[in-house]
Amino acid sequence: MDSRLDPIDLHFGGAAHAIGVYLVDTDEGPALFDCGPASTIPALEDGLAARGLALRNVRHLLLSHIHLDHAGGAGTLVRKHPELTVWVSEIGHPHLVDPSRLERSARRLYGELFDPLWGELLPVPAESARIASGNVLGWDVFPTPGHASHHSSYDRDGTILAGDAAGVRMPGASYVLPVSPPPDLDVEAWHASVAAIREREPARLALIHFGVHTDVSAHLARLELELDRWAERVGDGMEQEAFVEAARADAGGDADLYDRVAPLWQSWQGMKRYWEKRREAA
To answer: pLDDT tens for residues 23-68?
Structure first.
């Protein structure tokens, strides 16, 4: 494993272990896996400096998906470093180049908290954005929808750069939270993505929330258990307040951190929307 495969903690919202991005080796030198929002770019630059690098030394940004906590700072990074190439799934590509729809949706959700949380959301110039598929700089990219339709993961030398496809798990914890925001959560697709990860027999999963976990089999089993538990609760009519209370009990002593990193009320909304779409299609 690359000795640098430890997350750069972006201290999102002033909290440790909220968002961590990775400096990884590629066939063209160091690259970033996910970048966090624009609000955390100073922490990202500090983290790179601690590893002896400046942003200009990083030629590529590999994105798991376009949610703001993973990719919101991409356009700002390209403005600061125009030689940066940004890799993203085919589904996510249009929203990276024109994030206006994404921003409208997020501003409705977060209101006046949008700017302090996320900072500016700039487009990535079309000439800087590339489709992540197949072999990208020595990493094997494969689709991992479920959490989001535009999610991809990256595989190399026993490491899966998993984004949110392997859920949220705090360092030292056993609980794996299946973060499930709207609008396009798909439980069946997520199970298929877990099967695709498992098929590759990785030695480690690198999560953005948070850190590298090596007990891969137990981790993925817990993710699927919790995903089905959440789907069943909301499918059976559990309301938001009760859902949040039950999920916090599942998370135990780390509940506050999990809830801050992946707000449970948003996952209830995502699960509710999932069931509404299922019933509309029936």
So the answer is: 999 999 999 999 999 999 999 999 999 999 999 999 999 999 999 9
Which amino acid appears at position 263 of this protein? P
Contact 230, 264 (CB under 8 A): no
> Contact, 192 vs 133, CB < 8 A?
no
Most distant pair of Cα atoms in the chain: their distance = 56
Helix (H, G, I), strand (E, B) or coil at 253: helix
Distance CA 64, CA 150 (A): 8
Dihedrals phi, psi of 277, to nearest 5 degrees: -65, -40
pTM of the model: 0.95
Q: What are 142-188's pLDDT values in tens digits?
A: 999 999 999 999 999 999 999 999 999 999 999 999 999 998 999 99
CB 75, CB 99: distance < 8 Å? yes
E strands, 4-147, are: 8-9, 20-26, 29-33, 60-62, 85-88, 129-131, 134-136, 139-143
CA angle at 240 for the pair 68 and 191, rounded to the nearest 5°: 60
Secondary structure class of 259 (helix, strand, coil): helix
Say if residues 139 and 62 touch (Cβ distance below 8 Å). Answer: yes
Contact 22, 161 (CB under 8 A): yes
Tell me which long-range contacts 221-228 makes (C-beta under 8 A, separation of at least 24). Answer: 222/174, 222/175, 222/176, 223/166, 223/167, 223/176, 223/178, 223/194, 224/191, 224/194, 226/167, 226/175, 226/176, 226/177, 226/178, 226/250, 227/167, 227/178, 227/180, 227/187, 227/190, 227/191, 228/187
Residue 78 and residue 221: Cα distance in Å, rounded?
Answer: 38
Kindly report whether the peptide bond that precedes residue 7 is cis, defined as omega within 30 degrees of 0. no
